[in-house]
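Q: What residues go here?
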């Protein structure tokens, strides 16, 4: 079969065709029959052009062709959501919130965490389309693969197992033939033993004094999550009782001012330093570690003090040993723990156990374990992480909102938003998909926020009358520090929560010019006092801000 033979074969069949036509006395060389198909194809082309923009009239075609065209033109989930978003954008939240059946359907709860998302710009059709998008994206399969230890971090070839860090002791999760849960609990047991020894005074510093102050050196994921939890538990009664007589400070910034502030008022004799760096090479962390090491040596007069005053969370045992740290006091973690997910590992559990005791920290793990199980098993329509994730995608990728305000009405969560900024923006600030293709939609959002009511006197003006910024309100039924004053109509916590309940409605409903005129507002002030509303938000309500919550 070479070129000459192919020429012979094709010419043979051409002449064969001509012989048949001459015998049948037909014209084998025209093609009028094709023209009818071409004419009908022009009609189909016009239908395609209209159908790609939205619903198109197919009545000119016979019924079977109509049905087949409908299946062919059926848009994918992304296209359907884009088209649907245009209709939803034109519907004010006042209209959506007038439907009580809709509102009541948009509640979900798990383990005392209540989610109310009826003030989102969504209908039941929106939710159905979002669930279809989740199914088409393989959300359920990816989730189950994560819980099973699959290497879903494809670009780095790693499992993603922060869920293993809070698994029950008697559970099992194998990765590369090893039960990682037993390895996790081995480290947790070592943390409990060490932190109990320091807190009880059995482990003392170089001069024999108890170590009552801890300086935690780390940056990014080795700092933000730990500081958030520390601040959140400072005024929890159970945690505060365990922390009496103890101090925990953080040193993250390479700016020498941060070092000065971290060490201000501390005595080297009673200070324990925790250096957090997986590779023990993080530039900012290691410079700060050397700075504090120099301070210890200067104050205590000998380099021998390092072994009694410095411990580490790291996997680089040779480097930690060279630094002067006793190998027995190096607490490891794994490459399947991303920094922004690492507060559950030794990164967070060691400093927090030193401050509050391991039992308090165990309740922190218990709360996460409960949410893990809910996320793993609950139906999508009742699944809090799934609902919140899909609503965030809807707001960002389809409604075009670029920001998200996280608004905890609880001063204890003063550092929560800083942690969420890293958790979400570092995770989802990407421009390409897993296969390297450019993302079909925008991804991620700009996260910011402050505890209420401080934020109300800062940036809520922009949210009410400037840009549309979806908001997430977080509130608690009971306060960590309940307070009531005689003669006041409500408690201090109730006063705070009045704002928690009022602000979502104000953002959603706004205030019309007609309402202002009915109130007698001067005409020249009406444009300034009118609020457009139609600002989406969701609200979460939890029992109390304790370690489990």
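A:
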């Amino acid at each position: 079969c070479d070129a000459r033979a192919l020429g012979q074969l094709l010419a043979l069949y051409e002449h064969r065709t001509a012989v048949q036509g001459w015998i049948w006395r037909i014209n084998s060389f025209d093609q009028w029959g094709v023209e009818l198909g071409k004419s009908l194809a022009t009609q189909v082309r016009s239908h395609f052009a209209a159908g790609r923009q939205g619903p198109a009239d197919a009545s000119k075609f016979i019924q079977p062709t109509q049905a087949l065209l409908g299946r062919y033109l059926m848009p994918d989930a992304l296209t359907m959501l884009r088209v649907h978003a245009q209709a939803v954008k034109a519907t004010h939240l006042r209209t959506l919130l007038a439907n009580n059946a809709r509102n009541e359907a948009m509640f979900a709860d798990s383990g005392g965490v209540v989610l109310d998302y009826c003030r989102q710009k969504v209908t039941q059709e929106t939710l159905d389309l979002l669930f279809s998008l989740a199914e088409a994206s393989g959300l359920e399969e990816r989730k189950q693969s994560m819980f099973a230890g699959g290497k879903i971090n494809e670009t780095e070839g790693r499992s993603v197992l922060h869920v293993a860090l809070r698994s029950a002791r008697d559970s099992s999760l194998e990765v590369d033939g090893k039960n990682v849960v037993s390895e996790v609990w081995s480290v947790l047991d070592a943390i409990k033993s060490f932190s109990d020894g320091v807190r009880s005074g059995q482990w003392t510093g170089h001069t024999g004094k108890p170590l009552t102050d801890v300086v935690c050196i780390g940056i990014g994921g080795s700092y933000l999550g730990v500081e958030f939890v520390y601040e959140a538990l400072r005024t929890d009664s159970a945690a505060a009782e365990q922390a009496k007589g103890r101090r925990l400070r953080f040193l993250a910034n390479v700016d020498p001012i941060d070092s000065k502030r971290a060490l201000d008022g501390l005595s080297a004799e009673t200070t324990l330093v925790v250096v957090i760096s997986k590779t023990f090479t993080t530039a900012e962390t290691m410079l700060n570690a050397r700075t504090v090491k120099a301070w210890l040596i200067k104050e205590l007069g000998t380099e021998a003090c390092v072994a009694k005053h410095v411990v580490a969370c790291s996997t680089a045992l040779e480097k930690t040993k060279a630094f002067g740290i006793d190998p027995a006091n190096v607490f490891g973690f794994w490459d399947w723990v991303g920094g922004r997910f690492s507060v559950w590992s030794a990164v967070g559990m060691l400093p927090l156990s030193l401050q509050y005791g391991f039992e308090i920290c165990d309740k922190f793990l218990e709360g996460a374990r409960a949410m893990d199980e809910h996320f793993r098993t609950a139906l999508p329509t009742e699944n809090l992480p799934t609902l919140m994730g899909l609503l965030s995608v809807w707001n960002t990728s389809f409604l075009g909102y670029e920001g998200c305000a996280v608004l905890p009405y609880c001063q204890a969560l003063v550092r929560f938003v800083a942690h969420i900024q890293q958790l979400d923006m570092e995770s989802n600030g990407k421009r390409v998909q897993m296969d390297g293709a450019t993302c079909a939609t925008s991804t991620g959002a700009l996260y910011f926020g402050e505890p209420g009511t401080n934020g109300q006197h800062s940036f809520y003006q922009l949210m009410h009358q400037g840009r549309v910024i979806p908001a997430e309100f977080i509130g608690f039924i009971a306060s960590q520090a309940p307070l009531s004053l005689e003669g006041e109509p409500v408690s201090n916590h109730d006063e705070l929560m009045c704002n928690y309940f009022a602000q979502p409605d104000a953002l959603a409903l706004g205030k019309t010019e007609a309402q202002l005129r009915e109130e007698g507002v001067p005409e020249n002030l009406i444009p300034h006092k009118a609020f457009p509303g139609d600002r989406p938000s969701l609200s979460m309500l939890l029992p109390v801000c304790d370690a489990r919550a």
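A: Context that may help when evaluating the design: The chain is about 50% helix and 10% strand. The longest strand covers residues 471-478.
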